[in-house]
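This follows on from our talk about sequence and fold. Go ahead and set the record down below:
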Amino acid sequence: MEKSFKKPAFDYLGHVVSEDKLVDRIYELDELVKTITSNKGNVLLAGERRIGKSSLVRKAQALLEMKKVLTIRIDIRGYDENPEGFLEEILHILCYEIALKIFDKTPTDMLLALTEDKASTFKSKDFKKLFEIFKLLRVSNKTNVKNSSAQAGVNFLTIGNAEANKSKQQSFAIGELTDYEFIHIAQELISICQKSGFRTVTVIADEANHLAVKANKEFLRHYLEVFTERKVLFVFVTDISLIDYKPFKDIFDVTIKLTPFRNISDLNELLEKYVGADYNQIYPEIIVKEVWARGKGHPYISQILFHNSLEEALKQNKYTVEIDDILRAWSELLESDKISDVLKGLRE
């Protein structure tokens, strides 16, 4: 086996996996996609750390786009004390996504157009409107940044010299958007999407547990309802801690809990995807059972055990993992501080 041996590449350890590598998420994917495409309501997607939430969302995005649902993603970290900034950033990102997916304009194109005052040269009426909204939002955004340290991270694409642009910003600063203005700008953007064939818009909010949900529950409820009426739905991605917080959970129409793999056959499928059809030459059935017993179906822990146990075997010039390799890998894993919270969840 030595001549033909190719070391498996568990290269997605701790990262978002590609769509073709996703294992055992058929039911959750189906429920999420059906909820959005049928306009059933907003979704709370919850699961323990590194269980595969982001990977599931990535696959869901691809499926939704195929069904003419325009999706945008926003990371809520940084908006924990400023949910208003989170909502305004949604409009900001939506402008970028519409420009790219409908008008084939990159973020760089949009930013360069700001500096070169190209609006008058745009032929599409809808794109002219989009660009004017984009410009309006950036001016409002810059004004808010000056007045609120909580939004310091929002305006991350400023170009040119800050001092040189300062007088320009102040000369046409419009201040914060009112609720009425915010809602109607959102409606204008959604209208552009629908005219271009998109059925709805879905906002995927990562790290939703970082939002100060207990303090801003009614605020969120109000805006989620406003968006839902205009065919904009939300998928809030959060850790497992919020799934039992009823006041927050009640804001959402559907709750999806992401769990570890359901069956040991899912580990076999994972190995086939990463190693190949002859994976049992490296990981015999007894090893797969041992990983299942110790990792309890957690995809991240299982991959680490498969990866590290093979490393242990290779140190001894072995090309097939044995029980003692798993035991050494497990022992080292228990001593690791990096995943102590995940292991704690397994023990509980």
Remarks:
- Strands lie at 43-47, 69-75, 200-206, 232-238, 254-258.
- The two ends are 40 Å apart (CA to CA).
